[in-house]
Design a protein that fits this description.
The complex is a heterodimer of chains A (about 350) and B (about 475). In chain A, about 55% of the residues lie in helices and about 10% in strands. Chain A is α/β, with parallel strands linked by helices and about 350 residues long. Chain A has a domain of about 230 residues: Rossmann fold (3-Layer(aba) Sandwich). Chain B has about 475 residues and is mainly α. Chain B contains 18 helices and no strands. In chain B, helix 3 crosses helix 6. Classes of the chains: A alpha/beta (about 350), B mainly alpha (about 475). At the A-B interface, helix 1, helix 2 and helix 11 of A face helix 9, helix 17 and helix 18 of B.
Chain lengths: ~350, ~475
């Protein structure tokens, strides 16, 4: 609310400016437009300078998450998981660190993952993280998720003009978004045009700092991110249903009809290469992929094909019959796609064992 | 379509370019009319037919009025206004009437379950029906001639800048403009841009910011203490002014871009020293409409004193009901009616009082402004709350009648009052920086660009709809 007082004072200045600044008729229309644009750009420059000087960053869960990650400065080697809610819900960081620790190495597992973290957003925050990380990871593991891989703009439409989407849409993000849009995987020119408009609108809002002062905080402001905080279970199944869904998912071979049949798409391959290239620039050389078990067959089928298409990388699909045999109860699942409770711990131990078996750790 | 949205920006740009490219005036009017219907259809296309029906009714009545004698003219007027009022009453007041009838019957010992209708309130219906009534009544009174061109009436009623929330433009004001070609004037365009910018800052920056103070408190009244409630009331007092004045400024500015002038709708109302003065400065197009089409036909000031008070109360009662079909709006209207009556009584009493009680002296005027604004604020509590009981609880808590513990908020009242004071003082004083002529052009337009940039950075990203869109 103290912030509100500043805003009210700032608004008072803007209103005063509105009332007392000089007025002149536009004798030369082009000159008037030019001055208008110059004034706008000058103000944007001032705002950018002020934002840099004050050290402001977009506020919200992702800012707190990145701050938590960059602040890690322990002696242990860092393994970074990059993903979405599948990873956030499905991987227990402590259990994974403990399992990986069986190799007589002291490991810290960090997770750049949150609900709805699209690839565009993840690239943006991955760069933020690398720019400020006190200790670089030795191994980066990317989550495999068909929905995110094949619909990088889904979240943009779902959270249209939200603080989060505007915050991530800088020039580089817009470039990747347009690159996907111009690829072969987008259905219809109308969709392309609408999405192009939305990308440009978000880019415009980002560049013009629209709403930024509201949605900003000092970059060094202490956050309260809790890596162990998870939502309580909301969806319930019977154990029989779970067993049936898990079995059906394991047997699914086809991808979802609206997903491209090329796995991964050219765009996804290019994005992964770009991410790895950025990571290499920071001295990180080891990468791998993993998928979290799902009761949706499409995701499992996608992960299977993804791993088949990535022979040069360690790639782990969460579909081991022994693992799935242990995930047959309602209490193991948060919903169709996300693990819960003991199921989560079981999968994490299984993933840790697989990683150790593949000897991926440095 | 919210005025502060990409959709509206695109719509306005497209209509603007086509409008000024088209050479014929008649074609331009058709273009604006079709654009206005498209604007309305963006909300719900089905109700375009309702607006067209109201337009045809007004157009037909206008032409019939010129063809018949005195007695028939009255009948035509009554039928036309009746149709408009039936449309308004059906969509806006039907459920209110049914619900209250059910309650009244139950109170009289006749338990019942009268069915309410699932009716959507068409956006802007209160405004376009008033435009239609204004057109027919002005022809009946001989103030304007009936239009032979349907497009003029259609554009008058549907013109998109004023369609959703006014200002209520009078036929005597707009029709003469429609009869002449609208020239592309640089001064008009400049004024339009300035008004749009001012409206944008009022609404997107200030009103939506104040909404973040007021809305959470009004949504959970029980959870906040008296001081937080006071802060919320003052925030709403500012919010509704900046919201509606912002909308009006954008509407007037948009009309200017197309070469049309709209009347002023706000004149710094929170400097008013009486409720009468307030209504000369607040939503002026509605208050003048009510004066000319309700208050004066009821007898106006030319009646006996008690009858004048009755006329005032009835006019403001209707004004309250016009805002919404709920008892809190009725109370709001009655509060203002009472304020107007008190002001009339005071005006009659004042000459008999000693010279020391001179209304124009600064001290007395300051006191009068304070008292008037407190009265207005009490009115806004009834306007904002969902029910009379809630409004009573808010006022009771603030004045200490129903003290209850609750969440406290940071005191923002001085900042909000300061913001309103800056706007009202600098806006009405016509202060302008004086700068050398050679720099005037660059500074004037450059500062406009800067203000826009600062406004964009300061506004909350999530925009709320204009408050008056619901009426």
């Amino acid at each position: 609310m103290a912030k509100m007082a500043y805003f009210l004072a700032l608004s008072g200045l803007i209103v005063a400016g509105c009332h007392i600044l000089p007025r002149s008729l536009p004798n030369r229309l082009m000159a008037a437009c030019l001055f208008l644009v110059i004034g706008f750009i000058a103000a944007q420059g001032m705002l950018s300078g002020t934002i840099t000087a004050l050290g402001l960053a977009p506020r919200g869960p992702l800012h707190e998450l990145v701050e938590y990650l960059t602040d890690y400065d322990g002696d242990r080697e860092v393994v970074l998981l990059v993903g979405s809610s599948f990873t956030q819900q499905g991987v227990d960081l402590d259990v994974l660190a403990e399992t990986l620790g069986k190799s007589d190495r002291s490991i810290a597992v960090l997770r750049l993952a949150t609900g709805g973290l699209s690839h565009l957003e993840r690239l943006y925050y991955l760069k933020e993280y690398l720019a400020g990380a006190k200790r670089m990871p030795q191994l980066v593991l990317f989550e495999i998720a068909g929905g995110y891989d094949n619909g990088p703009l889904f979240q943009l439409q779902q959270m249209r003009f939200s603080d989060r989407m505007v915050a991530m849409m800088d020039g580089a993000t817009a470039w990747w978004a347009f690159r996907w849009l111009l690829g072969e995987d987008v259905p219809g020119s109308t969709t392309r045009m609408l999405l192009a408009g939305e990308i440009l609108a978000h880019l415009g809002l980002h560049i013009c700092h629209v709403g930024f002062l509201w949605n900003s905080t000092r970059a060094d402001h202490p956050g309260n991110y809790d890596p162990r905080a998870l939502p309580p279970k909301a969806q319930h199944f019977t154990d029989d249903e779970v067993a049936r869904f898990v079995d059906r998912a394991a047997r699914t071979r086809d991808l979802r009809a609206d997903w491209p049949q090329t796995v991964p798409t050219n765009w996804m391959r290019a994005l992964l290469e770009a991410e790895m290239s950025i990571l290499r620039e920071h001295g990180i050389e080891r990468f791998g992929f993993y998928s979290v078990p799902s009761m949706q067959g499409d995701n499992v089928a996608y992960a299977r094909r993804f791993c088949a298409a990535m022979p040069n990388f360690i790639c782990i699909v969460g579909e081991d019959p022994q693992l799935l045999a242990g995930l047959q109860r309602d209490m193991d699942w948060y919903d169709f796609d996300h693990l819960h409770g003991e199921g989560r711990r079981l999968y994490t131990r299984w993933l840790g064992d697989r990683l150790l078996a593949q000897d991926i750790l440095p | 379509m919210n005025f502060v949205s990409f959709e509206f920006l695109g719509f306005l740009a497209a209509v603007y370019v086509f409008y000024w490219v088209v050479p014929q005036e008649r074609a331009r009017k058709w273009l604006l009319t079709l654009a206005s219907y498209a604007f309305y259809a963006a909300w719900d296309w089905r109700f375009c037919l309702l607006m067209l029906f109201v337009t045809v009714n007004a157009f037909a009545a206008g032409n019939l009025l010129s063809s018949f004698q005195r007695s028939e003219r009255k009948l035509i007027l009554a039928v036309s206004i009746g149709i408009d009022l039936v449309v308004l009453a059906f969509f806006k007041y039907c459920n209110f009437f049914v619900a209250n009838t059910a309650v009244a019957l139950a109170d009289l010992g006749f338990p019942n379950s009268l069915p309410t209708l699932q009716i959507v309130l068409p956006v802007g219906i209160s405004f376009y029906t008033f435009h239609a009534i204004s057109y027919v009544v002005d022809i009946y009174r001989g103030r304007v001639l009936p239009e032979t061109s349907f497009v003029n009436v259609a554009l008058y009623i549907s013109f998109f800048p004023q369609l959703i929330a006014g200002p209520i433009v009078r036929t005597t004001f707009i029709m003469p403009q429609m009869h002449h070609r609208r020239p592309f004037s640089r001064s008009q365009q400049a004024m339009g841009i300035r008004l749009l910018l001012r409206g944008f800052i009022y609404k997107a920056v200030i009103a939506d910011m104040l909404a973040q103070v007021a809305d959470p408190v009004f949504a959970h009244l029980d959870q906040y203490d008296a001081h937080a409630l006071l802060t919320a009331v003052i925030a709403f007092y500012g919010q509704i002014y900046f919201d509606f004045a912002g909308y009006s400024s954008m509407a007037i500015g948009t009309a200017r871009l197309f070469g049309y002038r709209f009347p002023r709708n706000f004149d710094y109302p929170y400097r008013s020293a009486s409720v009468t003065e307030f209504w000369r400065r607040w939503h002026m197009s509605l208050s003048f409409w009510l004066r000319d089409y309700v208050y004066i036909p009821l007898g106006g000031n030319r009646s006996r004193r008690l009858a004048v008070y009755r006329n005032l109360m009835m006019t403001m009662l209707l004004g309250g009901l016009w805002h919404g079909a709920a008892w809190n709006y009725v109370i709001w209207g009655l509060l203002h009616g009472f304020g107007l009556c008190a002001n009339k009584a005071w005006a009659a009493l004042r000459p008999c009082l000693p010279v020391v009680v001179n209304w124009q002296r600064g001290c007395w005027r300051a006191l009068a402004i304070l008292f008037t604004q407190l009265w207005i604020m009490v009115g806004w509590v009834f306007f904002r709350c969902d029910s009379i009981a809630e409004a009573n609880r808010v006022i009771g808590s603030i004045v200490g009648l129903h003290p209850h513990p609750g969440v406290a908020t940071v005191p923002l009242e001085p900042w909000i009052v300061l913001l309103i004071a800056i706007d009202h003082t600098l806006g009405s004083a016509v202060l302008r920086c004086s700068i050398p002529r050679r720099w005037a052009h660059a500074l004037s337009w450059g500062s406009l660009g800067m203000l826009f940039a600062f406004g964009l950075a300061t506004m909350p990203l999530v925009q709320r709809p204009f408050i008056y869109f619901q009426f």
